[in-house]
Write a structure and sequence with these properties.
Layout lengths: L3 H13 L2 E2 L3 E11 L2 E5 L4 E5 L7 E2 L4 E5 L2 H22 L2 H26 L6 H47 L2 E3 L4 E6 L6 E2 L4 E6 L3 E9 L5 H4 L3 E7 L5 E11 L8 E9 L2 E2 L2 E2 L6 E7 L2
Antiparallel strand pairs: 1-2, 2-11, 2-17, 3-10, 4-6, 4-9, 5-8, 6-7, 8-10, 11-14, 12-13, 12-17, 13-14, 15-16
Helix pairs in contact: 2-4, 3-4
Length: 293
């Protein structure tokens, strides 16, 4: 059950503790929350062959999170690769053009020889033979054009084969589930050996190196423009009274006045480690001091 009246009273109490100085304003009990989280889905159906990460593990953007069975897509990728190699060979093979040019040169020489012979002694070469030689010359000239056209088509086919290879490679890559950001694994939804459908969640990641800090200000005391992009210092009290400070910046001022005349401000701060463990974590409260000038 929710108690909106009680929650409103707590916010009002927090606002009453806002401390304003000449150049700063301090908001107590600000909420620390996640700046980024993602449920990583499967992009293709199949059996999960490998999940090389575990709960609590820090992963970097691009790290392998899970591997779906890709035996068939890899075979298709190999087929596409060999088809491309064949197409590239055909696209660079100009032997038909060279052969046709050589044949055309011979046919042209025959026609010249016929013309020279008949010029010296008319009728030396019969007209039937002359026409055959002229036809052969024209045939070889057309064969050059056809060979060039075939070579152009082979070049286009090589591009088609290249596109098929890229599609096959993408099909393989879609079965490699990689991290979209630097984050921490906080929940595994599937396990090795399970069948997953496209869209099924595999795991949940949260970004812990960058966190949000949110608080409320009264619209009677501050304009939105006074707060936007201002530097902040966030102080959190840990176990045994240990206090740690973190610099940050206001990244969002909500352009909406809530009940009670308040508006939300949000800062982002860089987290840091202590003894290998992140100091800040979502859910903690902190005091946030905003630099007004």
């Amino acid at each position: 059950m929710r108690y909106p009246l009680l929650a409103g009273c707590l916010w009002l109490f927090s606002l009453s503790l806002v401390v304003q100085a000449a150049d700063t304003v301090t908001l107590p009990d600000c909420l620390i929350s996640l700046a980024d989280e993602v449920k990583v889905p499967a992009q293709e159906p199949g059996v999960l062959m490998k999940i090389p990460v575990r709960d609590g593990q820090q992963v970097a953007k691009g790290d392998l999170l899970a591997q779906i069975d890709d035996i068939v897509p890899r075979a298709q990728q190999n087929v596409a690769l060999y088809k491309l190699k064949v197409a590239e060979k055909e696209a660079t093979d100009d032997i038909n053009i060279r052969f046709s040019k050589a044949g055309a040169a011979v046919a042209e020489a025959d026609c010249l020889q016929d013309a020279e012979a008949n010029a010296k002694i008319p009728g030396t070469v019969q007209q039937t033979t002359v026409r055959q030689h002229l036809l052969e010359q024209r045939k070889m000239e057309l064969s050059i054009e056809k060979a060039q056209k075939d070579l152009d088509v082979a070049g286009l086919q090589a591009k088609v084969s290249q596109a098929e290879l890229e599609a096959a490679t993408a099909n393989v890559q879609r079965r490699r589930i990689v991290s979209p950001l630097d984050a921490v694994v906080v929940e595994l939804s599937s396990h090795e050996g399970e069948w997953v459908q496209a869209g099924d969640p595999i795991m949940r990641l949260i970004r812990i190196d960058l966190l949000r800090v949110e608080g409320l200000l009264n619209v009677k005391n501050f304009r939105f423009s006074e707060i936007q992009d201002r530097a902040v210092q966030v102080v959190v009290t840990l176990a045994h009274g240990q206090r740690e400070a973190f610099p940050g910046k206001i990244v969002f001022v909500k352009p909406l006045v809530q009940a009670g005349g308040t508006f939300l401000v949000r800062a982002e701060v860089q987290n840091r480690r202590q003894d290998g463990v992140w100091i800040l974590c979502p859910g903690l409260s902190a005091d946030m001091t905003i630099q007004l000038k």
